[in-house]
Batch of 4 targets.
Target 1
Amino acid sequence: MPDAVVLLSGGLDSYTAAAIARAEGYRLFALTFRYGQRHAQELSAARAVAAALGVERHLEFDVDLSVFGGSSLTADQPVPKDRVLDAGGIPSTYVPARNTVFLSLALAWAESLGVHDIFIGVNALDYSGYPDCRPEFIAAFEHLASLATADGVAGAQVRVHAPLQHLSKADIIEQGCAFGLDYGLTHSCYDPTRDGRPCGRCDSCVLRAAGFARNGLSDPLLS
């Protein structure tokens, strides 16, 4: 059975991407980041998701991106809500270089494990506005991995899998439901209430709710 490092945030997308990796026969090594995010409920969600997936090992890593600021997810500034999504704009919830940092650390762990496959749950079809979710970025990082690692220099191919990249949120949820995933374990809200409930109004909540609705379902976190 081949091994893969999977980036596991505790959100709906990363859960589905990891389930796809498992369905493809990979043994999972899950990596979750505590990066100073205001939606820290996703950390406990990641633990629940990792347990549900039966991962081989779940590593939680501290890399505090809040020291740089530059994002409403890591600084004391309002999270946008009730807005019209604009695919041409980059929202304040973008965390500078986050996926570059996360993939670099996933690559380091993969190299130490002798693993050549990394899974990430980025999505570019539905609105995100994040430059580090684009196919061009994933392809560029995969090329970088072949240049920056001992295995890559020796001729091994390091593969960065983004199986959700060209799926809509509705498609992602449909596939996860086909796997029998319990999305009630996940957390996606950028600005949850004090008791951890999703706000229902941020970009992430709006996209998630629309994805469930297109499948004739209700979000289990809101029902």
Target 2
Amino acid sequence: MKDVETRIDTGASRMEIARSRGAASGFLLILLGAWGALIPFIGPYFDFAYDPGVAWTWTTARGWLEVLPGVVTVLGGLLLLMSRNRATAMLGGWLAVVAGAWFVVGRMFASPLQLGDFGSPVSNTITGQLAMELAFFSGLGALIIFFGAMALGRVSVRSLRDVRYAQRPVVAEPVAAEPVATAATEPVLERRRHRATDEVVDDEHHRRGWRHMFGGSRRTPVAH
């Protein structure tokens, strides 16, 4: 059985985390950010939009109030989903939180900052207007803030699982010299087998010599 060298990596960085810590939150944030950035352009197909109710129409207000925070949310979700570094994952969580907050309060700064007119909902019913308010701005932003804050809570605390992950055993690979050592022992074994065979042959010749010396050669009697 081969000896396997096992050592503990005690010098691992405190910033190292398992990728699964922010994976679920990151994936949900990517979905929410993509929704926020795309719904103003595809919503008019279903009469679910703000003015102008025309699909794939770019306006300054849509760019600042919906596309920008949606893209930032997607970026934060990707950092959470893919990062194994605590600082990078926390940056992704904070980006998501800020983007979610902008979804909620961004329209308050539209007029002072001259970001454009975000329009009015195309629906004439209170239920439809409420649904669009939640799906486009305040409800969407609240969800993004929730999942971003939850991800920050998970990645900011160094748990026992993180310590075990950082100090996980590292199994050393078998040394490359082992096949050479095995190959080197083969000629030795072969020489030992030849030596044993030569000793048996010499012993047999020795016994025959003693029989010839004391007993003489035995001749087969000839029948007359």
Target 3
Amino acid sequence: MVSKTKKVVKKIAAKKAVQKAAPKVVSTQKKWVYQFEEVKVAEKYTGSWDGVRGLLGGKGSGLADMTRAGVPVPPGFTVTTEACNAFRKAGKFPAGMWAQALDALKKTEKATGKKFGDAVNPLLVSCRSGAKFSMPGMMNTILNIGMNDATAEGMINLTGNPRFVWDSYRRLIEMFGTTVFNLDDEVFEHPMAEYKAGKGYKLDTEMTAEDWMSLVATFKEVFKKQVGFDFPQDVFKQLELAIKAVFESWNGKRAVDYRKATNISDDLGTAVNIVTMVFGNMGDDSGTGVAFTRNPSTGDKKMMGDYLLNAQGEDVVAGIRNADPIANLVTQMPKVYKQFMDITSKLEKHYSDMQDVEFTIERGKLWMLQTRNGKRTAKSTVKIAVDMANEKLITREAAVLRVTPEVVDSLLHPQFDDKAMQTAEQSGAFFAKGVNASPGAAVGQIYFDADMTEKMAKEQKQDTIMVRPFT
């Protein structure tokens, strides 16, 4: 008996010795995807916060940092800039990336209690670009991914709000067509304008559930006619095509021209952020908006922004409806307004800079969708730098370094006199009004197309001004 026991002990000891001697198996698969909660993993991999911004992009690193700080951020994940660059070289997703994205999607499902493509309790996501350096409006975004005929019916049963569901569905079809397949906005805008005119509607808010349902059917017909096949009902195919479209938008003409103008390297690539959809168009207790923690034109320490009730984010930036100033939110949703002001104050202190934020309110709950250092005029650059130094948010040396040669150059451009401008506006002398995308005062021939503006300036030596529907 003793002899038998000794043999067993020897076998166990020998087995342990083999296990100890054997090399550990370490996964060599490249990590292409990071959950928002994995910001420490990204920091360890890159070695610095600047490295994290390079890997996850400005939007992705901001979402991850806000998640770490306990700010209310919808669950999601980021596909890295490295994946984008690998995609650009090979023309396809790098090995393992799609599997990692699907695994991250399962974790997002678990965090939300919803399931992607489920007909009973569906998860919808947005697909958003995000490079290391801010390139506002230059690359693609697609909202409401995961909607199809089955999930639409499920969401109607879940929310009891068919108007919201059909409105969200038509938005996906339109954005998918214009973003993934590069269709002109007009192929969707014209049928919608004709429908509203036929009904005598002036605003989108007048559209009923039946109206949006009818427009979904129309948009499906437009999509099939323009693309050559039906709008994809496979939600995973929607996600795959959306990620590819965002990667490809890095090399779009707008993005390339913007990088040339702002000296951003073409080699950086864009990250892709897959974020759980939260809805600002679920009724009058919902809304969406964008804001700056300080005035980007003057530098004054006063929150400046716009929001819309019962709307999605694209409505605000596209100017489809006239937005309300952020100050009005205090009377409509005082608790949300206080929470918003507290969060943005913390973000500005955390980043030691003026912040540009996006937010959505879903049924009275505030969600933060983005924070980044805000773009500003040369005049406001100087004022904000001085004010922040006086507030002890940054050092005097840091304030001086923020006033770059480009800022000084902009300040030397011809300027309109503020009092003269006010007098002209009060007298009704303005022919039109808009938002400037370039510094200083200018005189020239107006053109409405970028290529034509450039051509006339170079070939005809004209002084030109380009005017667009929005910046």
Target 4
Amino acid sequence: MRTQRLFTLITVFVIASMATCLISAQTAIPNGDFESWVAHSSYSNPTYWDTPDSILMSIPIFGQAVVFRSTDHYSGSYSAKLITKNIAIPGAAFDCPGFITLGKLHVDLINQTYSVTGGSPINDRPTHLMGYYKYQPVGGDSCAIGMILYKTVNGKRDTIGGGYFSTTATVNEWTHFSAWIIYDTILTPDTMNIIAISSAQTNMNPNTTLYVDDLYLDYTVGFSEKDPAAGISVYQDKETSRLIVFCEFPSAREVVSRLYNISGQQVYCEGPVSIANGRMVVPYTGLRQGTYILAVEHDGKTFTKKFLLGF
């Protein structure tokens, strides 16, 4: 399936400036601990979450599930286990990632595409999506766990913020992750969608496995050692047509830098390269004025920063 579309979607939503607000309430993620599951005839879905399994398991004889209730957990009794699989049917075959969403998943098997709609209510502005994961990638695969926030005004629903966590590293022990949420407005969202996917790239590999457990929203304002994205600063040097990037990583060594435009298209890539004193330079010659997303890959994780390129 075309998971690059989803990964690009998540990336583009991480394109806003930091905003702060007073928190009057804190939203709980429905079944964020994955303790509750709904059993169907040939598969189970975590309560409040949607997966591709209802479509995949409707394929006669050749159907396979990609999301499972696992007893390998961080806490409680269960976690969600997402496995990328090759689905082979007469005359065709395709790779499908393990995928969960708080929204509604729409799958088109004929064209091998999908879309996500809806979500869960929210009435505040969290600063981070956090939780615990384990990851066993195959062949350089990458996972993603992301959050998208919406606001409906005058009958029109707009995306007002989001963030995601991604890694290519093998993680065999339960490990904490933090996805920094960035907003492009002072509005408070009314709907949230959380997505986790075992293979967040076009060239996915069967048997890649992601475990997710104990998802929760955090409301901490300010820099966190667990969230180096908050320490990325981008300055535009117009005289030399370069971006000067400062990264407050605990131990910045080898990094890969990528630039995406507002449509999610990659317009620049460099690395891995060594950076000194948390400083690197990114040229932007030939780029148009507008909003861009800088993605910095460091220590198996990807951190993003939105900035406005002006002339």
